[in-house]
Amino acid sequence: MRLIKMTILLPVLLWLSACSIQGKNQPGSVDIYRQYVEQNHLDAVSKVKAFRMAGWQALDDQWLLLDNAPSQPYLLHVSIPCTELRWANLIQVRQTMPRVLQADFDSIHVPRSPEIRCTIDEIYPLTAAQKDAIVKLSHKTTAH
Fold first, then answer.
1. Which of 31, 39, 110, 144 is the most exposed place for a label (fewest CB within 10 A)?
2. Strand locations in 50-112, DSSP E?
């Protein structure tokens, strides 16, 4: 009887823990970065010419900030959750064309999971003030 209970209970507990880990990306959850884009009427661009990455910051599994040298920040959304993105020390931006960043063609890779291709599906140019606001927003979500 005890073995039967454990056989039923263990898969349920594993499923619940997986749901809590992925909480930010569950259907119906609030996407604060999507809300920011919509509330501030940000317009996506299909490509960035003369792109040279100067820095980056992960916001969650699907949103990140990229800095283009010399000082143009961009908010990027990737098509699938990049599960290691939040904890990565390095990322690789794989570009289909040199010095051009393109939505739907280029991707983000985390060295710890090189087989996962996180295709960039949205690119939003930001002002320095918008970047600061998004960084503050990300600090609020990680403080909880």
1. 144
2. 53-58, 63-68, 72-78, 92-94, 100-102, 107-110
Residue 71 has what pLDDT? Answer: 84
Q: Give pLDDT, residue 3.
A: 54
Give CA–CA dist 72/128, Å, rounded.
8
- Residue 106 · residue 76 · CB < 8 Å: no
**Which residue spans within the chain are E strands per DSSP?**
47-49, 53-58, 63-68, 72-78, 92-94, 100-102, 107-110, 113-125
Q: How far apart are CA 75 and CA 40, in angstroms?
A: 13
> Averaged over 17-38, what is the pLDDT?
62
* Whole-number Cα distances in Å, 11 to 8, 23, 24, 26, 81: 6, 18, 22, 19, 23
Q: How open is the CA angle 117-120-126, to the nearest 5 degrees?
A: 145
Contact 76, 123 (CB under 8 A): yes
DSSP character at residue 126: -
Instruction: Give the model confidence (pLDDT) of 54-110 as tens digits.
Output: 999 999 999 999 999 888 999 999 999 998 898 899 999 999 999 999 999 999 999
Six token digits for residue 113: 């999971």
